[in-house]
Design brief:
Helix content is 72%, strand content 0%. By secondary structure, it is mainly alpha-helical.
Length: 165
């Protein structure tokens, strides 16, 4: 008996191509605890698998994966009353943590991004994935000038947060 594995193989190929997008969303929407990252990653992959038959390829697979991943993450946040609350670390601890981390600037950036609201996090995720502003505007259903303004505002906000720590 021969089975047609093409949809499964196509899904796995798409998943491999978009793995970075999924990981980026996991990093942005968790406290970066490995167990929480793994859990969110699995939830996203399950949602992608469930929705894959309905994906009509009218947009890029990366756009669809990003949208599903963000929606999954946000739904998890809304329904997870046990989600740990992030607290500001005492002065000097960021530097101590950074000294032990090879990529401390990335960790610092994520610590600042954690303090943004979910809408700004989504825009930052798209921006960090180097998507063109036109594509970001389409995905967020806003105009390109609005994307540009929001990015400028978020950059100022992150700079202020960094300077005030």
């Amino acid at each position: 008996m021969k089975t047609d594995n093409q949809p499964y193989n196509d899904f796995l190929e798409m998943l491999e191509e978009c793995n970075g997008i999924i990981m980026e969303v996991c990093m942005l929407y968790t406290d970066r605890d490995p167990a929480n990252i793994k859990s969110l990653y699995q939830d996203i992959v399950c949602d992608l698998w469930e929705g894959y038959p309905g994906f009509r390829h009218r947009s890029k697979a990366s756009s669809w994966v990003h949208r599903v991943a963000v929606n999954t993450a946000l739904m998890g946040i809304r329904h997870d009353s046990c989600r740990p609350q992030l607290e500001r670390l005492p002065d000097g601890m960021y530097e101590d943590i950074a000294a032990t981390d090879d990529d401390w600037m990335t960790q610092r950036l994520y610590a600042l991004i954690d303090r943004l609201d979910d809408g700004d996090k989504e825009l930052v995720a798209l921006y960090l994935s180097r998507k063109p502003q036109q594509l970001i505007a389409r995905e967020l259903h806003i105009s390109p000038p609005a994307v540009r303004k929001r990015i400028e505002r978020i950059k100022r906000k992150l700079k202020e947060l960094n300077e005030n720590d």
